[in-house]
Amino acid sequence: MYKKSKLSTAIIAVLAGYTGISLVNAAEIEEVVVTATKRAESAQDIPVAVQALGGESIEDLNVTSFDDYVKYLPNISRGGRGPGQNEVYIRGQASDAINLVTAESQGSAPNVALYLDEQPVTSGGRNLDIYITDMERVEVLAGPQGTLFGASSQAGTVRLITNKPRLSEFEAGYDVSASSTQGGDMSNSVEAYINIPLIEDKLAVRIAAYNDNKGGYIDNVYGTTTLDIDTVNSNVAAGFPVQIAPDAKLETADNLDLIEDNFNDATYQGVRFGVKYAVNEDWDLLVQHTTQTLSADGVFDYDPAIGDLKVSRFFRDELVDKLNLTSWTLSGRLAELEMLYTGGYVDREVSQSIDYTGYNNVGGYIAIYTCGYSYTTNPFVGTATDCYNPVKAFVNDIQNKRQTHEFRINTSPDNPLRLTAGIYYDYAEVETDGSFTYLGAIGVQNSDNPTYATRIRDVPADAGNATLINPNPRLPGEIFNNDMTRSEEQLAVFGELSYDITDKITATAGLRYYNLDVEMDGWSGGGFGGNNLDEKYDTLSAHDFIPKFTLSYALTEDILLYSTYSEGYRPAGYNRGGGLPASNPALNDVPVTFQSDDVQNIEFGWKTTLLDGSLQFNGTIYHVDWTSIQIPRFDPSEVAVTTFVDNGLDAEILGLEADVIYAATDNLTLFAAISYNDTEVVSVLEGTNFDKLLAPVGSPLPLTPKVQGNVRARYEWQTNDFDAYWQLGIAYADSTYSALLLDDRLPQESYTLGDLTVGVSRDQWTVEFFVENITDKRAQLHFNNQDRVPRITTNRPRTFGLRYSYDF
Fold first, then answer.
1. How far apart are CA 69 and CA 58, in angstroms?
2. What are the distances in angstroms from CA 319 to CA 76, 268, 293, 778?
3. pLDDT for the residue 26
4. Among 455, 703, 705, 709, who pairs with 674 as Cys (CB 3.0-4.6 Å)?
5. SS3 string of 228-272?
6. For residue 570, what are the β-bridge partners?
7. What confidence tens digit (pLDDT) does each residue in 9-36 have?
8. What is the pLDDT of residue 584?
9. How far is residue 593's CA from residue 631's CA, in Å, rounded to a whole number?
10. What is the DSSP string of 601-642?
11. Whose CA is closest to 145, among 34, 69, 235?
12. Pairing of strands 219-220, 310-311
C-alpha cells in the first residue's frame, strides 16, 4: 500500500485550484462549450466527466504535442517509445504496451479513442501525434464512451477540436520560438494561421501551418556487440536444438558509423486548410484537409547501463509518419430538428527502421539465423561453428486507410424529452510490409559451405496464394517477413434519450448496437516456411449492445450531481501465428483469436460553480470492472517466434478525479487537478499461456500512477503600458510498474516536474521566456524491456526558450 501522506498531499494540491479553462476576469470563470454529448453544451451543465484545455490554456501552457497536453491532464497516462509511438490510458486501464513491430498488423486496438474533430483517428500502438496549433480545445472524456463514440472508447475518449473558419471576421497571427535543451540541440518552431471571409457571412477559409524542429538530447555512443554463447544456447526454442559450439568463431560488430550526439531529433511539419460555406440561414458545409509529416531519428529511451541519456545502437533508427485527412460536415436544421452528416478519409503512411540487435538476448532461433552449421536431414539440428555479424534490424512500411460516415439528429434542447440518435459506418484497412533483416544471415548465404547457403530461401517463396502487398523476393538478409492486410468494417446505430422527470431531476438512457467484421489476409514467415493467413482465417464477426444510464440532480443552478452506469469495448482480433504449436510442448498452442475485453463502470460525479462564479470544483468517484483483459506476449523461446495476444486476467479499479479553478484575486488565478487510482488484479484466467507469468492477484495494473496531479498559478498585472504575467506549473506522478508480465515488470519511480513562464505583451504582440523541466528531472515515463535490454523513455531535459507571438 502507498502511504496515506501521498494522497493527503495530492488532495491539498487540489484545493489550490486547477482547470484547463482560462480566466475571463477577476471573479468569473469562462463558460466552456464542449460537444462531449454530441451537442454543443456548457461543460458545467452536462452530467459527463469531461476535462478540457481551452485555447487560452493551450497557449498559456505552450502545448504543441501529445506529451505536452498529457502532462496537464491528470487522469491520462501513456506508455511508449517516442513521438507517434505511444498508447494512451485513462483511469488506470492499462496493460502491457504492444510490441511496435507488430502493433498495426496484429495487436490489440487501443482502449482510448482519439478524435480530430468528428473523425476517429485511433491506431494501435501508434497514437496519431497531431501537432497542437490553432486549436480551439482538447477534450478528455473519462470513463467508457461506447454509446456515443463506439469501439476503443472503452476507457475514455480524447478529442482535439480545431478552430473553424469564421464567416465574418478576418484573423491572422504567427508564433516563432527558439529554445535550448541542456546537453542537447537547439529547437525552433514557426506557426501561423489566417482566416479570410471571402464572401461576408457566406464563405470563409482558414489556414494553419507549422514547422517545429525539436532538437535531440540522447547520444548514440560507441559500442560493440557479439553473440553471447550462454545466452543464445539458454534461449534455444524447444524442438529446434541448434546451439553454438563453445569454441565457435564469433564476429564482433561496432556502431562506429552511427555515433552521434543528440541523435533523437524530431520534426513536425503540416498544414490544415478549412472552407466553410453558409448554404442558407439553416445549413452550413465545412470541408477540412489536414496534412502532416512527423519525422524522427534515433530513439527516445536511454540505456541506464550505458549512461544518462545514452544508448549504443547498431542500425539506423528512423521514423517517417505521413498523414492526410480530409473531412466534411454538413449541419443544419429542419424545423426544431438539428441534423448533421459528417465523414472523413484518413490516409496515413508510416515508414520505420528499428535496431533489433537486442533480439539476440531473447530469440530462440539465433544460431539458425546468424551462424553456419552442417546438418544431414534435419535443418533444425546441428552445432554452429561460425557465427557472423550479430546486428539485426526491423524495417516496416505501413499504409493505414480509413473512411467513416455518421448521420445523426438532435431534438430541441428546450424540450423535456430530448433525443440524440444516429447511424455510423466505419471501414479501416491496415497494410503492413515488415521485414526482419539479420546481417548474419548474409554471411551464412555468402559462405563457402553450400549446406549453409541453402538453409535460407528467399521470402516469401512459399507464400502460395496469399494476398501479398509485396510479392517480390526479399533482399539478402531479410529472412522473416510480415506481409499482412488487416481490415475492420463496422456498422452501428446509437442513441441517447434524456427526460426531465422534474425541474431538477433528469434521466438519460443510451444504447449502441454494433456489428463488426474483422479480416486478416497475407503471409507471415521466413525461409523455413510461413503462415498463409488467407487460407487460415475466415471473417471474425462480433455484435453486441452497449448501454449507458445516467441520473442527474440539479441541487441548485450552480451545483449538479449525477450518477452513471456505462460500458465499453474494443474489437476482438486474430493472431497471425494462431494455431501454431508452442515451442515448448508443455504450453498451449498460440490462440487463433483473442476476444473483446469488457468494461463495466459505475461513477458518481459533481460539478459546482461557487463564490459568485470565482470558484469551480468538479470531480468523480468511480468503480471499474475490467474483464478478460487483452495482453500481448512475446516469448519466442517458449511459445512462438511471433508476438501474440490473449485474454489474460480480470481487474478492478476504484478511483477519484477532481479539478478546481479559483480566481483568488484580481491578478492571481490558481489551478489544480488530481487523480487517484487503486487498481488491482483480481484473477488470472486459467487455460492460457499466461499461467504464473503475470503479476499475481492483488498486484496493481501497470503504467498508471496511484496518485497523479498538477498545480498551476498564473499572476497577471499591468506596468506602464504593458501587460505582464508569470506562470508556474508543477506536475506530480506516483511510482508505478512497467508491465503485467513478470519478466518485463520493472518499477518506475515517482517524479515531479516544473515549468515556468514569464511574459509581457502590448497591443497585438507578446514576448515570453519559458523554462521547461526546471529541476532537470529524468522522469521514468516507461521502462521498455522488450529485448531484455532495459531502456527508459524519459522527458526532455531542462529547456530554456523564447517565444514571440503577433496577432493582426
1. 8
2. 25, 12, 10, 24
3. 44
4. 709
5. CHHHHHHCCCCCCCEEEEEEEEECCEECHHHCECCCCCEEEEEEE
6. none
7. 333 333 333 333 333 344 467 677 888 8
8. 72
9. 12
10. EEEEEEEEEEGGGTEEEEEEEEEEEEEEEEEEEEETTTTEEE
11. 34
12. parallel
Instruction: Identify the DSSP state of 612.
Output: G
- Residues 6 or more apart whose CB falls under 8 angstroms from that of 720 comprise none
Buried b / exposed e over 144-158, threshold 16 CB at 10 Å, is bbbbbbbbbbbbbbb
Q: At residue 410, what is the residue type? A: N
Sign of the CA dihedral with 675 first, then 680, 684, and 685 last: negative
pTM comes to 0.91
What is the three-class DSSP state of 236? Answer: coil
Name the DSSP class of 358: G
C-alpha cell at 791: 531502456
Q: Is the pLDDT of residue 179 over 80?
A: yes
Q: Which of 120, 184, 118, 199 is nearest to 152 (CA)?
A: 120
Name the band, by pLDDT with cuts 50, 70 and 90, for residue 104: low
- How many other C-beta atoms are found inside a 10 Å radius of the C-beta of residue 754? 18
pLDDT at 239 over 80: no
Task: Give the count of alpha carbons within 13 A of 697, CB side only.
Answer: 7
Distance CA 350, CA 85 (A): 11
Tell me how many domains the chain contains.
1
Residue 765 pairs in a beta bridge with 762, 806
CB count within 10 Å of CB 222 equals 10
Query: Residue 380 and residue 367: Cα distance in Å, rounded?
Result: 10
Distance between CA 564 and CA 493 in Å, rounded?
21
Q: Are 28 and 35 in contact (CB under 8 A)?
A: no
Contacts of 513 (CB under 8 A, 6+ apart): 492, 493, 494, 543, 544, 545, 546
Sign of CA dihedral 251, 252, 256, 259: positive
* Residue 794: CATH number of its domain: 2.40.170.20
| Partners of residue 424 on adjacent β-strands | 406, 492
516, β-bridge pairs: 490, 542
Averaged pLDDT score across all residues of the chain: 88
How many Cβ atoms from other residues are within 10 Å of residue 608's Cβ? 17
Question: Which grid coordinates belong to 737?
Answer: 510498474
Cα-atom radius of gyration of the chain, to the nearest Å?
27
Residue 11 CA to residue 673 CA, distance in Å, equals 9
pLDDT one-digit tens code per residue, 36-57: 899 888 888 999 999 888 888 8
Q: Domain range for residue 521?
A: 4-807
Measured between alpha carbons, how far is 374 from 450 in angstroms, rounded to an integer? 9
538 burial (CB, 10 Å; 0-12 / 13-18 / 19+) is: exposed
Asked if 329 and 340 count as a contact pair (C-beta separation under 8 A), the reply is yes
Pick from 388-402, 459-473, 645-659: least confident: 459-473
Q: Is 747 exposed, middle or buried (0-12, 13-18, 19+ CB in 10 A)?
A: exposed
Whether a cis peptide bond, with omega within 30° of 0, leads into 460 is: yes
Number of other CB atoms surrounding residue 257 within 10 Å: 8
Q: What is the pLDDT confidence band of residue 420, given thresholds at 50, 70 and 90?
A: very high
Q: What is the mean pLDDT of residues 224-241?
A: 88
Nearest CA among 550, 517, 700, 540 for reference residue 626: 700
- 354: Cα separation from own chain's centroid: 19
Residue 218 to residue 606: CA distance in whole angstroms: 44
- Close Cβ partners of 405 (under 8 Å, ≥ 6 residues apart): 341, 342, 343, 424, 425, 426
Dist CA 590 CA 580 (whole Å): 6
**Dihedral sign, CA of 694, 695, 696, 701?**
negative
What residues contact residue 326 under an 8 Å CB cut-off, 6+ apart?
Answer: 287, 288, 289, 290, 344, 345
What residues have CB less than 8 Å from 144, skipping those under 6 apart? 153, 154, 155, 156, 548, 566, 567, 568, 599, 601
303: cell is 540505456
**Calpha distance 539→534 (Å, rounded):** 10
